[in-house]
From TrEMBL, chain A:
The keyword Iron applies. Keywords: 4Fe-4S, Iron, Iron-sulfur, Metal-binding, Oxidoreductase. Residues 26-86 form the 4Fe-4S ferredoxin-type domain. This is 4Fe-4S ferredoxin-type domain-containing protein. It comes from candidate division TA06 bacterium DG_78. One of its GO terms (cellular component) is plasma membrane. InterPro entries: 4Fe4S_Fe-S-bd, 4Fe4S_Fe_S_CS, HdrC_iron-sulfur_subunit, Helical_ferredxn. GO terms for molecular function: 4 iron, 4 sulfur cluster binding; metal ion binding; oxidoreductase activity. It holds the Pfam family Fer4_9.
From TrEMBL, chain B:
It comes from candidate division TA06 bacterium DG_78. Residues 4-84, 143-230 form the Cysteine-rich domain. The lineage of its organism: Bacteria, Bacteria division TA06. The keyword Magnesium does not apply. One of its GO terms (molecular function) is oxidoreductase activity. Keywords: Oxidoreductase. InterPro entries: Cys_rich_dom (IPR004017), HdrB/HdrD_reductase (IPR051278). PANTHER family: COB--COM HETERODISULFIDE REDUCTASE SUBUNIT B 1. This is Cysteine-rich domain-containing protein. It holds the Pfam family CCG.
UniProtKB/TrEMBL annotation, chain C:
Keywords: 4Fe-4S, FAD, Flavoprotein, Iron, Iron-sulfur, Metal-binding, Oxidoreductase. Its cofactor is FAD. GO terms for molecular function: 4 iron, 4 sulfur cluster binding; metal ion binding; oxidoreductase activity. SUPFAM superfamilies: alpha-helical ferredoxin, FAD/NAD(P)-binding domain. Belongs to the HdrA family. This is 4Fe-4S ferredoxin-type domain-containing protein. It comes from the Bacteria. It holds the Pfam family Fer4_7. It comes from candidate division TA06 bacterium DG_78. Residues 209-229, 241-269, 510-538, 539-568 form the 4Fe-4S ferredoxin-type domain.
Length: 179, 287, 702
């Protein structure tokens, strides 16, 4: 049961303010997003319509703490079908962004964030890689792009994501909430 | 000679050199010049889920590099294409542009971002490609996988038909190979959820591998390193999970095109394909 | 200029007032009881109680009203303010162009009815019974329109012959109706009471027909007419009883001529004819939205996915015997990429198709996949009937139709169970939304952008303030079933009759006028006019006085002040502001339809506000120019309030949105000039929101 007495009426407005969250209120619940969703096709624990519905109801904690929020593959199949022109995947992404700041950021993303901070890339370039490239006749590439760290510092995202640690490791939680 | 700034992204230069190699060699054949973007970083997409604004700024910085070179960008990865295109559109909005300027970046020339495959379709064109094909691959039957961010969201790309995509099929057909029609062509590879739930990601990838097997194709054609990770690198996992055998080579489109242009198998880096394409090479007579 | 002052039985006591040498004051104790005479070409200032009352006493006069009772007496403001208000009103009226009464003579009392479907037939019939001469034109060779294409009508399922044929019979009894088939309008000129219409008629091919039907037997061309099979020479059993050639498909082989007992001509001829009419009734009906644009459902791409009409005709003719049918609702409807509106009748059409197939083949499995089922009013019984027939309703918008192993698969989520569903079927029917016949509206100069006129509140099609000679009937107004169509048709016929009762209509409504010497034809006014009343005629900007509603938005938009509204113009408002505003004042420019009424309400409800609040009544919040604001600031105003109707509630469609846009630019500029951000405020104030008005002006006065 959804306990509406726990609802936060401001939640939907907070999402709308965020990058990508704009279209949220247009939803009239036709469920075309869910019917189009490839993730939902294989795993019914993820349902974009349900996430949007709970957001509209103001069920902030339920939405943000749900590990299934992160199942969205951002493939935009939903966006193409939405009759109300909502960029559904962007709305879900805005909710993810909000969750990340509320210390619900999955470890994998934190790792990627740290790598970008350190290298400006997702993969560490070793000398071996450079030699391989040279052998293939491919031009050399820079190991570290330090300006990315500058951007991360400017937006303060690392600090926001790492501020608390109460909800670390959502992956194990995923399994627990399955039942 | 057409000139573009080549944006490599993270995965291609270290994990998919055969994609890069074949793309560069195909480009050379077609009189396309790639200019290196030395200081380019990750496109920003991997942390979009954490903070869209940060990822857009990272993308915008990459665009600014091409902008100062006054060149349009060619990408090899679908997600890079979408991320950079998004930032390119955002740069036209005052609020975002202000944030971008605050970081000391500049955007002197407008930049167009296109996937390499889109450049082949739109700017080189099927007619030119058809004439350039020296070795038609008539004996091959493949399925084409578009991936999501090649044409979705359509508001961003305004390219191809998001409901009935056709450009890659046409490009494959030009090489002489047969691109088979199949159900769920637009299905996502699952790559984005690999880090969140591997079993789910593998299940998603399996859907198309299963179709490919039933269609009895020689290869699956991919245009995104992320999708290839799912269909090629994780093919073994899908085989284990669903107790089956696939053995389906996953070729990047420039590899296929390269072969039809008469390029040597080393020039398209065939030996770096994880699922070995020897049967396919034999069919097309490339020893 | 006369200043007419009503003392409201001496409640208003003014000291001596110097109104200048050219003006005179006339005092009345009670204008309600004894009205002074005012002529149409005279300009006056009327001071007394609220213009809301005064305007009913003095309709159609060229007056500026000064509200002494509600704005001074009841709120306890000092009398010097009354003087200022009167003098400012005089200053305004000095430069105002008086309204020129527009006279429409109803010279011609015959009517043109466009469209020979149920609506057009009913309109023609009703008018003819009232001795009106009617010219009925129909673009196809036969009467009947959409209804004649259908097998049956909802909800009862009666064949069209029950409804259509008796109506045609009644109409044909009238001798004063002229019929033109294969005919459309080419263009139209003139105005209400006097239209000149050029008609274009394509020849029928069959000149003399004995209705033997031999031509059909020999015609080698098979045509699929929206699911119905026919030949290139054909007959629709309505009226007239003469065959016709479909020149789009005819191969001119001449076989029909060989067997014809009458006369056939295989060269298509186009003739033109000018007719005159005093009124036009548009009864052009509706068209289905092109469902192939909704690509995920595969119309055209997947052969066998069909529209409702094709399905209905295929079932009725027995060419289709489905085992499992899925009817998808809202195809293209309520969709920002296609039709943003609900077409209102398609839910019932879908129910009808479900019932139709089950009546014919009771063992068919029928699914209706609908995001919403809208069965308003008594149609709920129809919905019940169809459910009891065993139709399965699935709530949710299907994502796509695919073809797998030779069968259609409709993918959706069933919102009742929260489960994904794949429905395998041999037949998929797309129930699409409807669009208006834009071509005809275009020729009539009515721009609809694909929607129906009713979506614009019918504003473009005849409003209460101006006589218009163009009316809509039936589904041309908005998609309607046959019952509603008949009602709407009678309403249209009544409108025509009541128009024709008059020989002359005098309309006294402020109108925009364009000064050709000042106009640079920049065309900015064309885009801002909410009524499409401005267009270019002979390379000059022209205001269509049949459409202009006098909002004044164009006069504010015009960079050269070339467009001026009768009774209200930017110069007049400037004069008024200059004469009225003193240092430290709050100037309130209030829309006459909403915010101004709130000040009356404030007076009655004893909401007091400071005396330095000076109120000017304007036609629309969209009729204020930034120069007026600057002028008030130069005069020393410490705050300016523009009061308008709430968004979407603007009397002139979108004047308040324009006001909002201007306010934002203006605020930015004022900040650059060093003014406080809130020195100008645009507020939405409803007609009864006295407390809101008072709170705002008090806040601004701090």
């Amino acid at each position: 049961m959804i306990e509406l007495k726990n609802a936060d009426p401001n939640f939907k407005w907070e999402i709308i303010k965020r990058e990508g969250g704009e279209g949220l209120l247009k939803c009239f619940g036709c469920s075309d997003c869910a019917a189009s969703c490839p993730v939902r096709y294989f795993d019914e624990r993820y349902n974009p319509r349900k996430i949007i519905r709970l957001t509209l109801l103001g069920m902030k904690k339920e939405v943000l703490s749900s590990p299934f929020l992160w199942f969205c593959a951002h493939c935009h199949a939903c966006t193409e079908r939405c009759p109300q022109g909502i960029m559904v995947a962007e709305v879900i992404n805005a909710i993810k962004n909000y969750a990340a700041e509320q210390d619900y950021c999955p470890e994998g993303y934190k790792m990627q964030l740290d790598l970008l901070n350190k290298l400006g890339r997702l993969y560490e370039i070793e000398d071996f890689d450079l030699r391989k490239r040279e052998k293939l006749g491919l031009p050399p590439i820079n190991k570290i792009i330090s300006e990315v760290a500058k951007i991360l510092e400017h937006t303060g995202i690392i600090e926001r994501v790492h501020s608390k640690n109460a909800h670390a490791n959502l992956k194990s939680e995923t399994r627990n909430t399955n039942e | 000679m057409k000139r573009y700034a080549l944006f490599l992204g993270c995965t291609v230069p270290v994990r998919a050199q055969h994609y890069e190699l074949s793309a560069r060699n195909v480009a050379k054949e077609l009189n396309i010049e790639f200019v290196e973007m030395d200081d380019a970083s990750c496109c920003g997409f991997p942390i979009k889920a954490v903070d869209a604004e940060t990822s857009l700024l990272i993308a915008a910085r990459n665009i600014s590099i091409a902008s100062t070179m006054n060149l349009n960008i060619v990408t090899l990865c679908n997600s890079c294409t979408a991320m950079l295109s998004d930032a390119q559109k955002q740069l036209k909005h005052n609020e975002f542009y202000k944030k971008f300027k605050e970081l000391g970046f500049s955007y002197p020339h407008d930049v167009v971002v296109k996937h390499f495959v889109r450049v082949l379709y739109e700017e080189i064109g099927l007619d030119v490609l058809k004439k350039a094909v020296k070795k038609p691959l008539n004996m091959l039957k493949v399925i084409s996988h578009y991936g999501c961010h090649y044409m979705r969201p359509s508001q961003l790309h305004e390219f191809d038909n998001p409901e009935v995509p056709h450009t890659l099929d046409e490009l494959v057909t030009v090489t002489g190979a047969q691109s088979v029609e199949y159900v769920d062509k637009k299905m996502c590879c699952g790559g984005s959820v690999l880090g969140i739930d591997e079993a789910l990601a593998v299940t998603m990838a399996n859907h198309k591998l299963h179709t490919a097997k039933n269609s009895n194709v020689d290869a699956l054609i991919s245009i995104c390193p992320f999708c290839t990770v799912m269909y090629e690198d994780n093919q073994r996992k899908a085989e284990d999970k669903f107790e089956t055998q696939y053995g389906i080579p996953v070729l990047y489109y420039p590899q296929l095109l390269g072969l039809s242009l008469g390029l040597d198998k080393n020039a398209v880096g065939i030996r770096f394909n994880r699922v070995k394409a020897s049967a396919l090479l034999e069919k097309v007579g490339v020893a | 200029m006369r200043v007419l002052l009503c003392t409201c039985d001496r409640a208003i006591k003014l000291p001596d007032l110097d109104v200048g040498p050219d003006n005179t004051i006339e005092q009345y104790d009670n204008m309600c009881k004894k009205k002074p005479d005012i002529t149409h070409d005279e300009k006056v200032v009327i001071a007394g109680c609220s213009p809301n009352l005064m305007e009913t006493l003095f309709p159609n006069v060229n007056a500026e009203f000064v509200n002494l009772y509600e704005h001074i007496i009841l709120v306890g403001h000092p009398v010097y303010k009354a003087k200022d208000l009167i003098l400012a009103a005089i200053e305004k009226m000095k430069v105002i162009t008086p309204v020129k009464p527009k006279v429409f003579t109803i010279d011609n009392k015959s009517a043109l009815v466009i469209g020979g479907g149920v609506a057009g037939i009913e309109v023609a019939s009703q008018l003819a019974q009232n001795s009106i001469n009617v010219h009925l034109i129909e673009k196809t060779p036969f009467l009947g329109g959409m209804v004649a294409k259908l097998d049956r009508l909802y909800p009862e399922g009666t064949p069209y012959s029950h409804t259509l044929m008796p109506h045609i019979g009644t109409m044909l009894k009238n001798k004063n109706i002229e019929y033109s088939f294969n005919t459309e309008i080419k263009d139209i000129k003139g105005k209400v009471g006097n239209y000149k219409i050029m008609l274009q008629t394509r020849s029928r091919g069959v000149i003399d027909c004995s209705h033997c039907g031999k031509c059909i037997d020999v015609c080698p061309v098979n045509v699929d007419d929206e699911g119905k099979k026919r030949k290139a020479i054909f007959y629709v059993p309505t009226y007239p009883e003469t065959y016709a050639i479909d020149f789009k498909t005819c191969t001119k082989c001449g076989e029909c001529i060989k067997v014809c007992l009458g006369k056939i001509e295989l060269e298509e001829k186009i003739t033109e004819k000018e007719i005159r009419a005093g009124a036009v009734v548009v009864a052009t009906g509706l068209n289905w939205y092109d469902v192939s644009k909704v690509e995920e459902y595969g119309y055209h791409r997947l052969p066998g996915v069909m529209g409702t009409l094709e399905f209905e005709r295929a079932i009725a003719s027995g060419t289709l015997k489905p085992k499992k049918v899925v009817i998808i609702y809202c195809v293209g409807s309520r969709d920002s990429k296609h039709l943003p509106y609900c077409s209102k009748i398609c839910c019932f059409l879908g129910l009808k198709e479900a019932k139709l197939v089950l009546d014919r083949y009771p063992n068919t499995q029928v699914y209706i996949a609908a995001m919403d089922m809208r069965s308003f009013g008594t149609f709920e019984y129809f919905y019940n009937t169809v459910r009891e027939k065993g139709v399965t309703f699935i709530k949710g918008k299907p994502s796509e139709v695919i073809k797998r192993d030779g069968k259609f698969v409709v993918r959706t989520e069933d919102l009742y169970t929260n489960e994904l569903l794949e429905i395998e079927a041999d037949t998929v029917v797309l129930s699409a939304g409807f669009v208006a016949d834009n071509a005809t509206f275009d020729k009539l100069g009515i721009k609809l952008n694909g929607d129906f006129p009713v979506i614009y509140g019918n504003a473009s099609l005849g409003n209460i303030e101006l006589p218009r000679g163009i009316f809509t009937a039936g589904s041309a107004t908005f998609p309607a079933g046959v019952a509603d169509t008949l009602v709407d048709a009678r309403k249209a016929a009544f409108s025509v009759l009541s128009l024709f009762k008059q020989d002359k209509i005098e309309a006294i409504l402020a109108n925009a006028l364009v000064n050709e010497d000042l106009c640079s034809v920049c065309r900015m006014c064309i885009g801002t006019c909410p009524y499409n009343a401005i267009s270019i005629v002979d390379d000059k900007i022209k205001v269509n006085e049949e459409l202009c509603m006098g909002c004044g938005i164009c006069s504010i938009t015009c960079p050269s002040y070339a467009s001026q509204l009768e009774l209200f113009n930017p110069q007049g408002l400037s004069n008024q502001i200059k004469a009225l505003v003193r240092k430290g004042d709050i100037l309130a420019l209030l829309c006459r339809w909403s915010a101004y009424n709130a000040t009356d309400r404030a007076a009655y409800d004893k909401y007091m506000y400071p005396e330095n609040v000076k109120i000017i009544r304007i036609p629309c919040s969209g009729a204020v120019d930034p120069t007026h604001i600057m002028l008030a600031l130069i005069s020393g105003a410490k705050g300016i309030l523009i009061g308008g109707c709430y968004p979407d509630a603007c009397h002139y469609v979108r004047g308040n949105f324009l006001a909002k846009a201007r306010e934002q630019v203006l605020k930015m500029n004022l900040q650059h000039l060093g003014f406080k951000k809130d020195i100008v405020r645009l507020e939405w104030i409803g007609k009864d929101e006295a407390n809101k008005f008072v709170e705002i002006v008090k806040e601004m006065n701090k």
